[in-house]
TrEMBL record:
Record protein name field: ThrRS/AlaRS common domain-containing protein
One GO MF term attached to the UniProt entry: nucleotide binding
Keywords linked to the UniProt accession: Metal-binding, Zinc
Domain of life: Eukaryota
Species this protein is from: Collybiopsis confluens
Amino acid sequence: MATNSDYFRIVSPTLRVPSNKSISIPVGILACQRDPLLRELETTVIHCMISQAPPAFPNGKQTKNKKVLSPTLPNEPILQVVTHDTCIFPEGGGQPTDTGLIKTADGKLFSVLQAKRHGSHAVHYVQANQSDIDSALLSFTPGSTVVTKLGKDDFDRRYDHMSMHTSQHLLSALLEAKLHLPTLSWSLTSYPSSCYVEVPRVMTAEEIKLIQDEANRLVFEGRAVYTEVEELDENKKAEPATLESGRSVGRGLPTDYTGGIHRVVIIDGVDRNPCCGTHLPSIKNLQLFLLPHTDTMSRSNTSCARLYFLSGPRLITYLTSAHDFLTRAASILSVGNDLVPDRVRQVVEERKKADKRVSELELELAKSISAGLVNESTDDKQLFKRYVHRTNDSSNPLGFLSSIASAFSEQMANFSTPYLLVLTSAPAVQTLSSSSIIMVVGSDDKLVKCAGDALKSQLEVKGGGNGLRWSGKRMGVWKEHKEGGLVDSILKAIQ
Ligand SMILES: [Zn+2]
């Protein structure tokens, strides 16, 4: 697929794309900006130097922002290569750098990890083999012919960026025209997450639908996209860019830009927006999906809201994964996809009822176990000691032991018999990473502490407590004839 010849329009009688192969074409009228679908370009090396890559994250930690991160530069020398022209886009206008390839005249293929704008030049950051740096420098001798390329993955990445970037222009234009909502900022997040525009207030569901419908009507028409370039009026350079409608796009030209080109991206009949990004020649494939909510953001003195959107490859990825989630959930629930919400609601309600019933029954059982123990105790001054083990696969075995302990101490309060009770609980199937729960309850805090200390030292139980209760956890398999026997002997030793 080729870009239409009228995509790139020079609107100044004096501006020319430099044809002299010994100078570099300024950012603004590079091949990637004149022809966004170009994947390969033969050109000439102007300049090449070795540079030491800066640390990827100067603060030593990666930013939490979900913005697209440039591919990390290796911690070894890299080559900075300037060519006469390039199909590899250097980052700018909110659009991240391309990745790409350069094939040199001696048949070698080098990876371009990043491309950046230095003043007016696009600089390729080329990966060179450390041991072969001198021969790499020779491959990039000024004046030699090279081919800049976007490989399949490089172009897929760029196509995704272009889809989201052109969609953002369309979305911002419609928000302004239909709802008078200026775009305060936007972010091109990493594939495949949704991107967002920031607007001054939350939008209603009706407003979101209105914008989405209007965008997709224009997409259906397949409105053309093209660019207009002319010499930059230096006096206007520092001003934030505004449209004829007066819309501020929130970002002026970068102050370090020295390329001398003023570039406007136009969506036919919809939008004119100063921008250096690569944009698709038509919006015909950019079905826009707006996530039907806006997130409010609190800032110190302003309020704004984020409207998330998807388009192009990300929209397909989103639909595919959303459909997959739904189908998997439907299969687990054994219902058709459209019945998933109702069935989930039903399952959640049943689960709540079941949980309530389990806790009621556990309480009843705890009281019954406790009553059995109380019956075994004799009403005299002898210390009543018991060890009870439970097999329990519930998610909260400590809760159940605690219920038994509470019921037991409550019932024993009617008697003057001193007591010490050790309760343990382990799952039915145990492995070395299983954990058993231990609870100690007694009529005297010294007895409880004594049992707790012995459990710690003899059974490697990790735990603690104060007063009349102590609880702990032990990793590994709990065997009644072994660990249970040890608890019995601990109790036996306490008088
Ligand atoms: Zn833009």
